[in-house]
Amino acid sequence: MAIQNKIRKAQASDAHVVPEIMLQAMGDIIFRFIQKEDIKEAIHFLTQFFKQKGNLYSYENTFVAIDDNGNISGSLTGYDGDQFFELRQPILDHIKEQYNNTMILEAETAGDEFYIDSIAVAPIARGKGIGTELLHYAIAHARQCGFKKVGLLVDLNNPNAQKLYERIGFKLGHKMPFAGGEYYHMYIQLD
Question: Which residues are CB-neighbours of 32 under 8 A, at least 6 positions away?
Fold first, then answer.
């Protein structure tokens, strides 16, 4: 039986744990940003942005799942896809200034959707339905906010994630390159 988690908006004070959870879903991309596979530096990078407003990885764009003991067991970061370029700019500015990295990744979303940037569950809490709960919560949030569509990217090499998204109702969209890999844009139409 799945454990029922409470889901709430993240707070800046959650920075002691959420960036470490987020990194599980975003490691490859963050390592490309900082130009090294350094977990400590990657968590520091995410923590800085998580604590700030107005960027892709901000606490203000994140929901967290809380278990019965009050621990954060998962996180989902999502935002209005129409704000993608505006939210990404502080990150691009930082990696250029801090890491002399001028890379610009492909756009993850074409806009016109609530875009789920990342979803991750703490290793100790996997297999308990937390990812599914977070996705359902994000879909309900998007519907309540008036979005007509929810979108996300799934790595072609991650068929288990693709199956999870399909079970929830996401459909396969176009194939696209992103961050050196190949992904499907998946979406769910909201009525």
Answer: 103, 179, 180
pLDDT of residue 75: 98
> How far apart are the two ends of the chain, measured CA to CA in Å?
30
Distance CA 117, CA 58 (A): 11
- Per-residue pLDDT, averaged over 94-102, amounts to 96
Say what the pLDDT of residue 4 is.
60
The answer to whether the CB of 50 falls within 8 A of the CB of 105 is: no
- Write out the DSSP string of the chain: -PPP-EEEE--GGGGGTHHHHHHHHHHHHHHHHHTS--HHHHHHHHHHHHHSSSSTT-GGGEEEEE-TTS-EEEEEEEEEGGGHHHHHHHHHHHHHHHH-----PPPS--SSSEEEEEEEE-GGGTTSSHHHHHHHHHHHHHHHTT-SEEEEEEETT-HHHHHHHHHHT-EEEEEEEETTEEEEEEEEE--
Which of 57, 46, 103, 100 lies closest to 79 in space, CA to CA?
A: 57
- In this predicted structure, the answer to whether residue 2 has a pLDDT above a threshold of 60 is no
